[in-house]
Specification:
With 202 residues, this protein is of the alpha/beta class. The N and C termini lie far apart (56 Å).
């Protein structure tokens, strides 16, 4: 059983992905998004590309090989069309640290936060925030995404782990549900996002 679980877990090395080309990763993600209908994102330290403004996307790829950047940026932005497919349901939970991470200058970050707030009105999107003052018991946190309930990915700075084994995916679903109970949605989320954007503009 242990060997079977290992076989259902895949490590995607970040350096190898960059050597192959960032467009390969974008194509892979687009395929997952096309074949899935329910998405759960827990964002610990940064905003995901699906929610990002063009400026934020470009900044997130600043360390990539220069010759790969224009195509990767275009593909990331093109993938955002999936958000407007009403047959798909998205739940994004992000910490205050992820929302306010200064990847871009304050003025551009304010525009990025405004975009998050606008997406809270999208009927197939639930976007929640966990402010720093919200306390809840948990172990170590990390960014992860669950596609339907059949596959999940956990992101590290060196690469990503792909889980296909049901036990692992269900464990991440349980964690996501517990974080969801502490997140603020709707008008409460918009109030915090508005305050954070205003702080950036000061």
């Amino acid at each position: 059983m242990a060997l079977a679980r290992i076989a259902q877990t895949e490590w995607q090395d970040g350096r190898a992905l960059r050597r192959k080309g960032l467009d390969k990763k974008q194509t892979q993600l687009a395929g997952l998004e096309a074949s899935s209908t329910t998405f759960r994102y827990f964002l610990l330290s940064m905003i995901t590309g699906l929610l990002a403004t063009p400026e934020y996307v470009r900044a997130s790829l600043a360390q990539a090989p220069p010759e790969q950047q224009p195509k990767a940026v275009a593909m990331k932005l093109d993938r955002q069309r999936v958000l407007f497919d009403r047959s798909k349901r998205f739940t994004f939970i992000m910490t205050e640290q992820a929302v306010r991470y200064p990847l871009v200058p304050p003025g551009e970050l304010a525009i990025q936060i405004d975009r998050l707030a606008s997406l809270t009105y999208q009927p197939n999107i639930r976007l929640g925030v966990i402010p720093m003052e919200v306390r809840f018991a948990s172990g170590a946190l990390n960014t992860f995404t669950i596609y339907d309930e059949s596959l999940a990915t956990a992101e590290l700075d060196l690469g990503a782990i792909v889980f296909r084994e049901s036990q692992d995916v269900q464990e991440l679903v349980r964690r996501f549900t517990s974080y969801e109970e502490h997140a603020l949605f709707g008008e409460q989320a918009r109030e915090y996002l508005g305050a954070w954007a205003a702080h950036c503009r000061r």
